[in-house]
Amino acid sequence: MDVLHLDSVPAFTTKDGSEIRELLAYRNSAIRNQSLAEARVPVGGCTMEHYHARTEEIYYITHGTGRMRIEAEERDVRAGDAVAIPPGQKHKLWNTGSEVLRLLCCCAPCYEHQDTFITE
């Protein structure tokens, strides 16, 4: 049984500048076709606009507030919101609040640097 606690997973920076902690993926568990990570965007920070050629993502906001852009559409997001990001869609996330924006990021297939393409 693979059970990992957030505090035991080291943080790393993704190609788009997000600080993430990969909770479950093929790199550290029996999971093979998806990944689950917690991402954090500091107050006043943002990710770099990017897309994934193969990977679809779900962002689930757990703490804070932000502004999400997918292609030309923008929307405010807050704790409790789930965001669907299809493959090939350019996206960017800003922290617009007064606390660290924290979210769970589910990727299928698993997140990989080589499937991340920066567009700004």
Description:
The chain is mostly beta strands and 120 residues long. It has a single domain, classed as Jelly Rolls, CATH 2.60.120. The protein contains no helices and 11 strands. Strands 1-2-3-10-5-8 form a 6-stranded antiparallel β-sheet, with no helix packed on it. Strands 7-6-9 form a 3-stranded antiparallel β-sheet, with no helix packed on it. The N and C termini lie far apart (41 Å).
CATH superfamily: Jelly Rolls
Per DSSP E runs of 2 or more residues, the count of β-strands stands at 11
Task: State the share of residues found in helices, binned by percent.
Answer: under 10%
Tally of separate helices = 0
Indicate the CATH class: Mainly Beta
What topology does this entry show?
Layout: E1 11-13, E2 19-24, E3 35-41, E4 50-52, E5 56-63, E6 65-70, E7 73-78, E8 82-85, E9 91-95, E10 101-108, E11 116-118
Antiparallel strand pairs: 1-2, 2-3, 3-10, 4-11, 5-8, 5-10, 6-7, 6-9
Structure in a nutshell:
This protein has 120 residues and is mainly β. The protein has one domain (6-118): Jelly Rolls.
Features of the shown structure:
120 residues; mainly beta; Jelly Rolls; six-stranded antiparallel β-sheet; three-stranded antiparallel β-sheet; 11 strands; 0% helix; globular
